Amino acid sequence: MRGPVMKIEDIAVRYGDCWSIRSATITLEPGVIHAILGENGAGKSTLLKAAVGFAPRVAGTVRIEGGAGAIGMVHQHFMLVSAFTALENLVLGNEPTGSFGRLDLAKARREAEALMEKTGLRVNLDARTSELAVGERQRLEILRVLYRGARAILLDEPTAVLSPLEAEELYTTLGVLAEGGATIAVVTHRMDEVIRFAGHVTIMRRGRTVLSRPIAAEERSDPKRLEDVLTRAIMGGEPPPETSPPALAQDAKVALSIEDLVLVDAGGKRVLDGLSLTVKKGEIVGIAGIEGNGQRELVRAAAGLEPGVAGSIVLDGARLPAVRSTEDLRKRRRAIAVVHEDRHADGLMLDASVGDNLVLGELGEIDGPGAEAALITRRIERFGVYPPEPARRAGELSGGNQQKVVVGRALDRIEASPERALVVLGQPTRGVDVGAASTIHGAIVKAAEKGLAVLVVSADLGELRRLSHRILVIHRGRIVAELPPTTSDDVIGRAMLGMEDA
Ligand SMILES: Nc1ncnc2c1ncn2[C@@H]1O[C@H](COP(=O)(O)OP(=O)(O)O)[C@@H](O)[C@H]1O
Ligand SMILES: [Mg+2]
């Protein structure tokens, strides 16, 4: 199964009056994993879309051996029908038919089983897609592309939603496919993945391909140097300084004490099951865990958005009252600043402008439109929101730039309001590029230096290690381990799976 060679030469893509790609040139060859890197908004997703013919290309050429049917794309946001079973989704659009043109599910199942056997990608074919875990959904998307007969797969930030173990598995699979001759391109922000798995790398910056070359075997023996070279190309200059948590006073007092939180969901499952933890003043505590183990509910409970939660949240010695009214909610917000992992549901108005989003919720706290405009400009600059246009609709920004708006707003605001005691952040840099992640980390460290207690939930263990004084592992709604940030991935990973010996 040799994949096609794809040659994309000097293409330009424009949406309305906005250039998504000014000039991109890339050749994808079969047999290697080709990593595509670049800041948020650099044009990576657009490049993949242009390759499969989904983007309004205004110049340049796209040539694919064997025609466009030979390639398939796994999108950043999955395209599965949630009411269908995995098997139904797998064959959707390519259903094998029996007599009278009827869908032959038995045949589909045999073919699907054979494909899973061959690739090692496993999903429960009878489960409804809505019941599948993120990693399974992704495997299903890849199987779908292969089922169609594609020999080239383009994946847009596939590991952004995966746990470290799942990411590892994904690259093992992609490696096997590449060795079998498939053509594979992966967009990612995670440098460790590139260094370990990619055979070729292309970097986009502000709509242009600025570097495209193979990675030599000997370069992998000096990963720090390789990372430095790639980071410079991504940012177009000096890489950002490494963050580390600020010094913590020996006698720092406990600022936050969460005691025995219990939350039962509609199906009777205890999504928080006796969760307790403490955070001191000036301390940054990281929460590691496989998605779906209660981290999202913990953040929502802290924000006062889970009225059914039992247990107590004590801040500076005073127990916070339950949130039962909008006035309660306002009080809770004054005490705790929260960034939710789902920026669309909780933090971002897609139809409002970037500027309005950057000061959302601060009505009455800013004196006059002049001060407001200045504040918006400052936040755009500080967090590198791109493009730097306050009037642009927030929904038009790339995902990473939307994240900068939400996190930047919360952190910038909290630094100016001394009465707040706690910051809780859910996945603060998910899908965010190195430069922006560094800015966000710097702001988190600064908040801790000012004496705030900080709780960070993240799927990125490297991030937790660089930021936290302590790492707590959450499993099935409770904290199962407390580890120093120097702990290896392996040990943290075992604790995340609930293994006792971690
Ligand atoms: N449908 C669209 N309409 C308008 N602008 C878009 C659209 N899609 C992407 N863009 C713009 O094109 C640029 C590149 O976006 P994208 O390819 O998503 O970046 P990346 O994937 O590298 O983060 C961004 O500035 C983004 O705002
Ligand atoms: Mg993208």
Account of the protein in words:
- The chain is an alpha/beta fold and 502 residues long.
- The chain is built from 16 helices and 19 strands.
- It has helices spanning 44-51, 86-91, 105-119, 134-147, 164-179, 191-197, 223-235, 295-302, 326-335, 343-346, 354-358, 368-383, 399-415, 434-449, 461-467, 489-496, and strands spanning 6-15, 18-28, 33-38, 57-64, 71-74, 152-156, 183-187, 200-205, 208-214, 254-264, 270-280, 284-288, 310-315, 318-319, 336-339, 422-426, 453-457, 470-475, 478-483.
- It has a six-stranded mixed β-sheet, sandwiched between helices.
- Helix 12 (368-383) crosses helix 13 and helix 13 packs parallel to helix 14 (434-449).
- The relative contact order is 0.12.
- The site of magnesium ion (MG) has 5 residues, from helix 1.
Task: Chart the SSEs and their pairings.
Elements lengths: L5 E10 L2 E11 L4 E6 L5 H8 L5 E8 L6 E4 L11 H6 L13 H15 L14 H14 L4 E5 L7 H16 L3 E5 L3 H7 L2 E6 L2 E7 L8 H13 L18 E11 L5 E11 L3 E5 L6 H8 L7 E6 L2 E2 L6 H10 E4 L3 H4 L7 H5 L9 H16 L15 H17 L6 E5 L7 H16 L3 E5 L3 H7 L2 E6 L2 E6 L5 H8 L6
Parallel strand pairs: 3-7, 3-8, 5-6, 6-7, 12-17, 12-18, 15-16, 16-17
Antiparallel strand pairs: 1-2, 1-4, 8-9, 10-11, 10-13, 13-14, 18-19
The structure holds adenosine-5'-diphosphate and magnesium ion.
The site of magnesium ion has 5 residues, from helix 1.
